[in-house]
Amino acid sequence: MNERQGSAGRLAGYCASPAVGRGGSLAVDGGAALADSFQQCDGDYELAFQAYNKSFRPFIEDVQASAAQFGLEFLVPRTEEAIRARNSQPPSDIGLA
Question: Is 1 a domain residue?
Answer without folding.
Answer: no
